[in-house]
Specification:
CATH class of one domain: Mainly Beta
Shape: elongated
Number of strands: 9
Helix content: under 10%
Low-confidence stretches: 8-19
CATH architecture of one domain: Beta Barrel
Radius of gyration: 18 Å
Largest sheet: 9 strands, antiparallel
Distance between the termini: 28 Å
Order of helices and strands: HEEEEEEEEE
Length: about 200
């Protein structure tokens, strides 16, 4: 695990002495809509993915909280656009199955001053790993050999809103953004924003 991936967890450890209660452990599942380059440049429509993960919620009192989480998201084969490093010119287009793994931490502010009920906002950061498999070039080139398996890593940030319906059950609308480089060919860029609607279960 690289230094960027470790940073959110180091921040969490610094906050541990401020904990108001013992940590809550939980899981999350979500339906995920890929946007922009990851969905062939379409804002609405196209393939929908699924996500599952685990988290640890640390209550810092006064409505403040920290959520350490890991997610695995998978999308069936579909269009992907690869741009130049500046993101202004499309270089290639391909069809591929995409998987994204992410580790990070969310800062939460619960408007009801309790992490067990009501609405909250979140701001997150972490590190993500993208894996494209079965990739087939559809436009651009010429390319001598297009790799069927492609991998890259990226910093990831997140924004979202959630609601704790019950002390152990909640819902969450979440936007994440990653920018993966050197997929398929050197000098390429794929921006991968996603919009997800999820269910969280804590115990």
């Amino acid at each position: 695990m690289g230094r960027p991936a470790v940073a959110p967890f180091c921040l969490a450890l610094l906050g541990c002495p401020l904990l108001a209660e013992l940590p809550q452990f939980g899981v999350q599942v979500a339906v995920v809509q890929p946007e922009s380059d990851l969905n062939g440049g379409k804002w609405v429509g196209g393939r929908v993915g699924a996500s599952a993960g685990v988290h640890v919620l640390l209550d810092l009192d006064g409505g403040h909280g920290l959520c350490l989480r890991g997610d695995a998201t998978s999308f069936r084969s579909g269009p992907i656009r690869l741009f130049d490093g500046s993101g202004s010119t499309q270089l290639y287009g391909e069809d591929a199955k995409a998987r994204i793994l992410a580790l990070g931490a969310d800062y939460r502010f619960h408007f009801a001053s309790s992490h067990l009920e009501g609405p909250y906002g979140l701001l997150g950061a972490g590190w993500s790993w993208a894996s494209l498999t079965g990739a087939a070039l559809t436009e651009g080139g010429p390319v001598a050999s297009w790799p069927a398996d492609q991998r890259a890593t990226s910093f990831q940030f997140a924004l979202g809103l959630g609601w704790r319906f019950l002390p152990q059950v909640g819902g969450e609308l979440r936007y994440t953004q990653s920018s993966f480089r050197d997929l398929g060919a050197p000098g390429t860029l794929m921006k991968a924003p996603t919009l997800s609607l999820g269910l969280t279960l804590d115990y």
